[in-house]
Amino acid sequence: MLLRISLVATCGMVLAGCATVQGASTRLEPTASRPPSDRAAPAASAPTAPPGPDFIEERALQAYATGRWDVAEGYYLQLTRLQPRETDPWFRLGNLYAEQGRLDMAEHAYREALRRRDDARTLHNLGLVQVRLGVGALREARERLPPDDPSRQQTREFLRALLEAMAQ
Hints:
The protein is mostly helical. It has a domain at 53-167: Tetratricopeptide repeat domain (Serine Threonine Protein Phosphatase 5, Tetratricopeptide repeat, Alpha Horseshoe). The chain contains 7 helices and no strands. α2 runs antiparallel to α3, α3 (69-82) runs antiparallel to α4 (88-100) and α4 runs antiparallel to α5. The chain is elongated and about 75 Å long.
């Protein structure tokens, strides 16, 4: 019992000490009755503004340059939401996807860029992605078609012509 009483007394002193350290009064008083100099300053700091598009673009470029694809993708997607009419975030996102071999995503991103502005370099990159998609589809078709199917030979010829044209 003595141990319990000393524990309660110790806890009471600790709590009283905390209240004193924090500058809290044990007696509640309405704020208006205290003089202005006794009022505690607000503890919360002013909310910070979210980073702007220039900051996000800079971070995206840094992440892209250092090969941190997932980070760059997140920043570019954020830019597409912050600047819905801008072309560059979609174009750069398309480049990012194309480099990773995510060709369907690259095609979508380039098409979004073209919806915002007709641009020859975006069209060029879209064409390259579509050629790569086409080559992949023809290779898969060549593998999956039965050996006696006439389409298999045709597919092989298309694929050979495409690959030769790309080498020039």
